[in-house]
Amino acid sequence: MKVLIRHIIEQLKEIQEGKPWIGNTYKSKLDGIDSALVFERPHPDLHSIADIISHMNLWRREAILKIETGKGSKTDACEENWLPENKLKAIGWTALKSEYDETLKRIILLLEEKEDSFLEEEYYDTDFKGNYQYKFLINGMLHHDIYHLGQLGTIIKRLKSTASNA
Fold first, then answer.
1. How far apart are CA 32 and CA 15, in angstroms?
2. Which one, 14, 34, 61, 157, has the greatest CB density within 10 A?
């Protein structure tokens, strides 16, 4: 049976480009952004859009690895978690955004191959140093996406406000 898996996939798609109750999606936030702004921080204590997308890409790659092999390789303390601006600029916005889109597609494809019982299976989480059920990972990825969607909303609002006041 795939009732839970289908529901998770629907939620992942919904916050990307659907019509969620919260009103905003990644598509609505990222499609309208000026690429000149993606590396800017609206405040020294806030991340840039590129920071957030790169960070999400890392954890999506980790989720893919965990689903495929049963074990991850990164921790919260790894450098790739929050790359410095010069490395992000070297990668470029187009590549960051492309990886963002591709990693989501890959996670969805992997989940579509699974039955609901997969969510009860365990993997080793390098960051949390223990065995966890895949539902912890998959639900965590969904929570992570929603959290950072809100963060992007704040960042974009501040960037646009700063740009219009300049």
1. 16
2. 61
* Phi, psi (deg, nearest 5) at residue 131: -90, 135
- Identify the CATH number of the domain in which residue 139 sits: 1.20.120
CB 122, CB 133: distance < 8 Å: yes
Strand partners, 71: 124
Note down the domain range covering 104: 46-165
Residue 96: predicted pLDDT: 98
Output the pLDDT for position 166: 61
φ, ψ at 130 (rounded to 5°): -175, 175
What tens digit of pLDDT does each residue of 74-124 get?
A: 999 999 999 999 999 999 999 999 999 999 999 999 999 999 999 999 999
Closest CA to 149 of 37, 20, 1, 4: 20
Q: Are 122 and 134 in contact (CB under 8 A)?
A: yes
